[in-house]
Write a structure and sequence with these properties.
By secondary structure, this protein is mostly beta strands. About 0% of the residues lie in helices and about 45% in strands.
Length: about 525
Amino acid sequence: MTIRSIRSTTFHLDRVLGDRPFAEIGDPALAVEDEGRRLLAVAGTAEAFAGLHGFGRITPVGVYHAGDLGCRALLHARHPVHALAFHPRLPLLAVGTGNYDGGYFFEGELLLLDLESGTASSLIEDGLGRQVLGLEWLDDQRLRVLMAPPDDWDDEDAWTEGHVAVVRRADWRAVPPRSVPYEELAGPRVAAPRPDGREHARRTLSGLSADWDPRRNVRAVEELSDGRILTTLDGVRLESWLPGGSRQWTAADDSAHGGRDVVVAADERSAWVGLKRPAWESRPQSVVRLALDDGTQLDHLTPSAPVSVVRGADGSAVLAPASPHGEPGTLRVRRGSRIYYRETEPVPDEMWPKRGEAWLRAAEPEAEPAADTPREPAPEEAARLFPYSWAPGETHYAGPGIETADGDLVHAGTVYHGHGLQPGGSFVVRRSATTGEPAWVFRTDRRATGLDADRETVYITYDDGEIVALAADDGTVRERRHLTVGAVLVLPTALTVAGPGRLLIGTSDGRVLVCTTR
């Protein structure tokens, strides 16, 4: 597969590690068959993903042919999926989603996926929508929709009952988005069970293939000099892939959260791995050293506060302070001559402290690390360099970054807004590490999930599946396109420049794309 260049860079997909039947879905939650057309619709469980706000959940829904198990169409829903229904004649799949917002509303969507174009539309007019629990096509024109009540206010039966309505359209392929008004969904109160379809879905997939594997979210990827590729991902501390494409070993994570960062030792006999710790957990984060011949744990560190494990300019592992609130406040700078991090200074003497100003801080790495063991920089070792935001009135969240060979910083981030990411609110900036002044800024509408660079090009992946190549000197766009495998969109979650003209891209479905650039 060759991707056409807009200017001077092309990407070529050489191979895919971790490919398998139903790779796009992960752990299945619901499966529905269309025996006449030999199609299978499968919804995965809602999975954490680095989304517009730096966190979030998506639920994949894939449609597969029962013969070759190839994915014919894919969508990513914003809520858990409760219902799937193939149209009796047209190439359409109705998808019902939703959940409880935690305090009042049952919200969700009625989605319609076109199996030929791969496009999906959200049909309910109201912004919050309705939690859709059941779907049934009564004929070519009528769709029966079972929904949870709009909310649970003074309603003890809201979790066991709902409302049923029949939506009628003459041509469902011509239905525009947001065209089903709230009033059309009014209907009588009925029993609304919430069945658990996970076991049936797993049995269905196992009956079609014994090779499906619910892998999710590659968080970091590195290549060794002997051609092996290392990955961290959800539920796995670290795994190793042989040059031939087979998996050598897997070091599972008992906590099920998995590895986040990885830095390989200079002798390539071990690697330091930062394990994920969700912001809501009180237990401390762990950083482990693993042997690269079999994944055995060799050492263990317990930092006093959240950290990222990043590669310094000399190739050694360093611990950079991370935000206690997770991804939005965490800056990860690879190949830095110093340990960079974003810090928000609290406003003193306030019962309810206001948001303080964010600064870029930097600490000098140890001149001679003891026994190749990284340590946390003490607060007094870090110098305050300059305000994190270069734009007056804007609060900037952090993201992935690198230090260039001439000492500049290139990093991604987002502009804080109370209503979520706004158009143009995601940026990549090249700025002086001395003054903070930007040399160039590239803006877009989606959050960056990975960033790395060689001497001439900065590569960025985004949470909608796009990859962008920018000229390192002036930020000019050299190439941008969406990543696909077998014509199906994939969502990138990690990116590494492994060498001249060689990219490794981790995905939300647990695969690694090995690419070359030309």
